[in-house]
Write a sequence for this structure.
C-alpha cells in the first residue's frame, strides 16, 4: 500500500515536485513577501494543478470525463443554490481571488469540485475496495479539508458566510453532496492515480492548516 503513494514515473515525479514548489512558494509569499500579489495567483495555481492531475491519470477516457462532468455540474449547481438562495451550505458569497464568476460562483470552483473528488477519491480507493466505502471516505476527506480551509477563506477573499462562521449545515451539506459524486468517481474511474493525488491532498491540508494555525495564534 505504501508504494502507491511514491511517484514512479518521471511525469509523476516532476508533477509532485511542481505542486510542492507552487504551494511552498505560495506559503512563503503570502506570509513574508506580498500577500495580495500571491493570493491573486490562486486561479493560475489551481488551473495548472488541475491540468497536472489529468496529465497523471493513467487513462483519460469517456468514463473519466463522465465522472469529471458530474462533479463539475453538480458542484456548480449546488454552489449556485448556495450563493443565490442560501440552500444546502448556508448563505455565503465569493470574493475576487478565484477568478471569473457565473451567477456569483467562480468557474474554478466547479473545477475545484472535480479536483477534490478525484484526489480524495483516489486516496479512498487505496484503503477501501468497495465503491461505497471508498466514496464515503473520500467525501469525509473533502469535509475535513473544507473544515481546515473555512477559517482562512474570508482572509484570502475566497468566500465568506453571512455570519462570519460556516454553519453546521455547510459540513453536512458537503458530505451529502460529495458522497454521490464520489460514488460516480469510484464506479466509473477504474484506473486511478494515487501518488499525485496523495501528495496533493497532503499539501492541501498542510497549506491551509498552517494558515489556520497562524490565524489562531494572531
Amino acid at each position: 500500500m505504501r508504494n502507491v503513494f511514491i511517484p514512479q514515473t518521471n511525469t509523476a515525479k516532476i508533477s509532485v515536485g511542481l505542486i510542492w514548489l507552487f504551494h511552498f512558494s505560495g506559503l512563503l509569499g503570502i506570509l513574508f513577501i506580498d500577500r495580495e500579489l500571491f493570493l491573486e495567483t490562486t486561479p493560475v495555481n489551481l488551473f495548472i494543478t488541475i491540468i497536472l492531475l489529468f496529465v497523471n491519470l493513467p487513462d483519460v477516457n469517456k468514463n473519466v470525463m463522465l465522472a469529471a462532468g458530474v462533479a463539475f455540474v453538480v458542484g456548480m449547481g449546488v454552489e449556485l443554490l448556495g450563493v443565490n438562495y442560501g440552500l444546502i451550505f448556508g448563505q455565503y458569497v465569493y470574493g475576487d481571488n478565484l477568478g471569473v464568476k457565473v451567477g456569483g460562483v467562480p468557474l474554478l470552483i466547479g473545477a475545484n469540485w472535480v479536483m477534490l473528488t478525484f484526489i480524495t477519491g483516489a486516496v479512498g480507493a487505496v484503503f477501501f475496495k468497495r465503491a461505497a466505502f471508498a466514496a464515503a471516505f473520500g467525501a469525509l476527506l473533502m469535509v475535513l479539508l473544507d473544515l481546515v480551509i473555512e477559517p482562512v477563506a474570508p482572509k484570502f477573499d475566497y468566500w465568506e458566510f453571512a455570519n462570519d462562521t460556516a454553519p453546521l449545515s455547510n459540513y453536512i451539506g458537503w458530505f451529502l453532496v460529495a458522497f454521490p459524486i464520489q460514488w460516480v468517481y469510484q464506479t466509473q474511474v477504474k484506473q486511478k492515480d494515487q501518488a499525485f493525488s496523495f501528495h496533493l491532498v497532503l499539501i492541501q491540508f498542510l497549506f491551509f492548516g498552517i494558515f489556520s494555525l497562524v490565524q489562531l495564534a494572531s
Summary: Residues 10-33 form the longest helix (24 residues). The chain has a mean pLDDT of 93.
